[in-house]
Amino acid sequence: MLATGALVASLLAVGASPAAAIDDDSRPNAAAATFACVGDATGDMMFSDVSEMHAFRADINCLAYYGVTIGYGDGTFRPNADVSREEMVLFMERSAAVAGADADDVVGDFATTGSDPVHRGDMALLIARLLDAATDTVGTDDDGTFTVKDVTGDDWDYFADSRRLQNRVHDSAASALYELGVAKGTGMGYFSPASTVSRGAMAAFITRALAHTSARPEGVTIQSDEVGGVLISVRDANFQPVANAPVDVFAAAANKVGEAFNEDGTCNTPRFLNPAVGGNADECEIDALDAGTNLSGDYDPGTIPVDPKVGGTTVWAWTGEQGDKVEDGGEGLASINLTDPGTVTATGTKVTHDLGRGVTRAHFGSTVTVTIQLVGAGNKDAVRDAAGNSYTVVTWRDSESDVATSDAVPTVDDTTNPDSKQTRTLKVDASGKVTFTITASDPDTTDRNNPPGDSTATPAVPDKTDRVHVAYSVTPTSGGRALLTGADATATGSSGTGTITFSDERGEFVAASTSVTLTADFLTRPMSGSASNVVTVTVVDQFGDGVRGHLVRLSSTHAPATTPPSSVANASTFPVARETDSSGSVRIGYTYRGGGSTETIQANTAADKTAAAGLTPIGSTKNFYWAAPAAGPAVGGTSAADGGVVAVDLDRNMIVVADSTNGPQLVVYDDNDQYSVGPSGSLEFTSMAAFEEALAADGAGGTARDDTVEVSSYDGTDSGDVARFVLTVN
User: Fold this and answer.
1) Rounded distance between C-alpha atoms, residue 468 and residue 396, angstroms
2) Counting Cβ atoms within 10 Å, is residue 705 exposed (0-12), middle (13-18) or buried (19+)?
3) Does 529 score more than 60 pLDDT?
4) What is the rounded CA–CA span in Å between residue 273 and residue 261?
5) What are phi and psi of 567, to 5 degrees?
6) Residue 71: phi, psi to the nearest 5?
7) Hey, how many other C-beta atoms are within 10 angstroms of the C-beta on 309?
8) pTM for this predicted structure
9) Which residue would you say has higher pLDDT here, 565 or 179?
């Protein structure tokens, strides 16, 4: 069995070198540019237990569209149930059929029977096999480890706990899925390979994987794969590529879309800005000069001019028989609006390292990567200046042997007489980034097991440890932009100086390093009865390694310790304390009864499994929003308390707006609405795409979410209403 093999071989897990541990600044290097869940694959498949606000609703519906799941006979999907081994085999066999792969290559040696839940480590292995069988992007080396095309060396990232707990093949599968944007981990750079997988989460994994394959909905779909670029796909009823299908493409300014078609549904040709898109002579007609799809069933018409001043460019694509013309006002057409996000100009520099939040130590022999990154407005990553940008990096190194672990860690300030000192000049690359690495070896390997002390002795004998402190300093030199300061530095975790302490001391639970990860930022408040939510808590030691068997119990502002839940307007009911798994993580589900409200969730250490009092808070809190559907006609305002944008879901066109009286309000927008975006006093009428771009920038890169929105003429019961959104960017 693969699961058993992973445990037996876990001691053989050896990290590839060089590589970098995943942290908050890591980004997938080979994420899919287009998706499988577009067009008809976004329709509602009507599972009774998958609400409109469910975090994985879109993924579940997409999976059902492709026939990978059919749900249960009672019309439910059961998204919170663990995936069994039997179910995983069925899901992967059906996914292989959709992706054009051989199912035996994916599940051949995986147990086909048994109701035991599948673990994340095995699921990652199966999905990596699917992508190896279905794409040229994923491959395998001679030792069976997975590779991702063009991702090597320092670009290859890994999950810290996967590297420690899994064998090389399983670990490489988890890393490959991260680089592909398929696996996002469970927080703080962890993958939790021994944890089970819910059916909802499984749907997300598979749909992200299908994005890398040829799987696209039946008919014609169009997606943007780069600035000013689109990829058009044609598939048959079995979702397989259709080669040599003629494709007619035409485009118009986004602000002229309403004039694109005549009253009889035919094209209003003179209105189009670019009749030669795709090289066709007669737009809106299938003719002999129309280009055809390649063997993969795709067609790329090349760069399309995009004018941001008119809200971008809308592009249509369709296929048919020779001589067919567009009729019925666009029926059968696929369309997309292209916008130009522009290039971010550098105004400053952030310096970060890849140790996790709250981590204070690094193991001897491990590598810490420090990243120097140019940033622009909103602390977005910026590109290199034309003249180049250089930085002087100085590192100092001091070591200690057999010191008490309780001794204060000294600051490395002996710049005049360190053990060693290095000065170098680094230049950022075209993307505005450059990295350097820090590592250290144990100065005394004879006591690497950390000689234990005796606290009962007189005098007490403390534990002993070896430590190496490496301090660094980054200073802008030729063309280097100034380092971030104040709130910008705090929000991005940037500092031009730092000290990394390498040690062989024992790992011990560190309360401040605990992380709380929400399955979603918000859900719709229960219309009747109660609703469910799931929280993942990860407990680590000073090295960032997971602490196994730690008792964790949740509490929140909606779970008072002394008042019966039945007498509280907004009440959450949490289960007894749960133990963390081998990766230090634990998934905890709970129920909520009440109206629209903001719930502040806290993780706690519990004395025993049933204790409801005497809990010790650990880690920082997380806000979760139980949103009430906004009725309108006016929503929001101009203050953080009334109108603050507290959560967004761009995939489902939803935003949650603060309301001090009624609690968080859920607002849905579409391309039928009107938008104004900008700083206070300089708001400009714009497109929905620009509105979404501003929403995505709010809170990005660790910055505060502080934009406000005013919505007028809003009717939450009528999708055809024309609402007015005014987003003030702060």
Assistant:
1) 10
2) middle
3) yes
4) 14
5) -100, 10
6) 70, -165
7) 9
8) 0.61
9) 179
CA distance 378 to 238: 45
pLDDT (tens digit per residue) in 691-722: 988 898 888 766 778 999 999 999 988 877 88
Give dist(CA 156, CA 52) in Å, integer: 37
- The confidence score (pLDDT) of residue 275 equals 46
The pLDDT tens digits of the residues spanning 624-649 come to 999 999 988 999 999 999 999 999 98
**Region label for 517, one of left (φ > 0), alpha (ψ between -120 and 50) or beta (otherwise):** beta
Q: CA-CA distances (angstroms) from residue 519 to 110, 182, 536, 665, 729? A: 28, 16, 8, 19, 27
Q: Which amino acid is at 412?
A: V
pLDDT at residue 94, as a whole number: 96
Cα separation, 417 vs 405, in Å, equals 24
pLDDT band at 418 (very low <50, low <70, confident <90, very high): low
Let me know: does 153 contact 159? Beta carbons within 8 Å: no
Q: Across 354-505, where does the E strand assignment appear?
A: 362-363, 367-375, 390-404, 420-427, 433-439, 464-476, 497-503
Q: Which of 448, 398, 627 is nearest to 522 (CA)?
A: 627
Q: Within 10 A of 376 (CB to CB), how many other CB atoms are there? A: 17
Q: Which amino acid is at 602?
A: Q
% the chain with pLDDT above 90: 50
Contact 426, 390 (CB under 8 A): yes
How far apart CA 358 and CA 302 sit, in angstroms, is: 47
Q: How far apart are CA 76 and CA 51, in angstroms?
A: 11
Given a cut of 60, whether residue 276 has pLDDT beyond it is no
The C-alpha angle 710, 711, 712, rounded to 5 degrees, equals: 125
